Amino acid sequence: MYPSQFTHVPVESVEEALDALQEYDDSELIAGGQSLVPLQKTRFASPEYLIDISGLDNLRYVEDTGNSVEVGALARHTDIERADPIVESVYLFSECIGQIADWPVRNQGSFGGTIAEADPSGDYLPVLQVLNPDITVQGLDGERTIPFNEFYIGMFTVDLEEGELITSASLPKLTPSVEDGGIGSTYKKHAERSGDYALVGVAAIVEVDGDDVITNARLSIGSVGPLTQATEAEKTVEGTTLENGVLDQAEAAVRDAVLPDEGGSEGEYKEAMAGEFAGRAIKTAYERALDN
Ligand SMILES: Cc1cc2nc3c(=O)[nH]c(=O)nc-3n(C[C@H](O)[C@H](O)[C@H](O)COP(=O)(O)OP(=O)(O)OC[C@H]3O[C@@H](n4cnc5c(N)ncnc54)[C@H](O)[C@@H]3O)c2cc1C
Q: What pTM did the predictor assign?
């Protein structure tokens, strides 16, 4: 199916994009087109004007800013996946992106488009929930910066006012908070086939002290009903070295926390896989924390 007719409005600056959003009533921004175009083709979206921000190269960057890594809204998935500061200091994000779809999608899809879309089966959400980066958006009245966990309201819904555009995010670097400690992270995805959307996506960050005891854990489960921060599971592993069945208890806490949309055996399967992949994620993040 083809999209319904639209007028293409290419813009060369953020200001032009904001003016165009105000000028054209029935309009939508387009960045990589990897979510919007399929929606247009199936007529779930039929904007009259497409404001094309794909050429805003000043928003296409990944930059080390000291304690954090700043990502411009037009950075493509592959730009982020390979960027040194991400690989070195926010590794789970690079690991997550490597599991999104395939090369064409990863070369086109942008950071801003992905978080604006907030697709509950997307891979970014659990990673961003555990990182909680600051998101910067710009409107004609100026800029706002919001922590991701406030910016993200729920499936397909973010705190973006009409006429606003996401410009960047500031991802905290994962560095140990004590000198002889360590920090490890991972993203584990379970999908039917490689490159498919996740049936379960789990992001984990684990921090240990000099005695290998977990001092802080963050765990988020995506693609199983609403995005879930597994706080009980986090508390279960904190203060331990994962000995004596702690991992089994954490997996059980995750199974209790998730709320699959599906009923019956499909829901039970997703619940079971959420526990299983959360266990694997905690173990990997812990082992990585011990390594650094
Ligand atoms: C075949 C296929 C498989 C895929 N598989 C996966 C997968 O396994 N995992 C996964 O996570 N994702 C997957 N995706 C989605 C992909 O990651 C998209 O890149 C992403 O969801 C949207 O990014 P985009 O730049 O293409 O956004 P677009 O499609 O251009 O835009 C999406 C929405 O965001 C808005 N928008 C765009 N940029 C901004 C901005 N800067 N500020 C405010 N609003 C903005 C647009 O108006 C639109 O409403 C898949 C996509 C396809 C086509």
A: 0.96
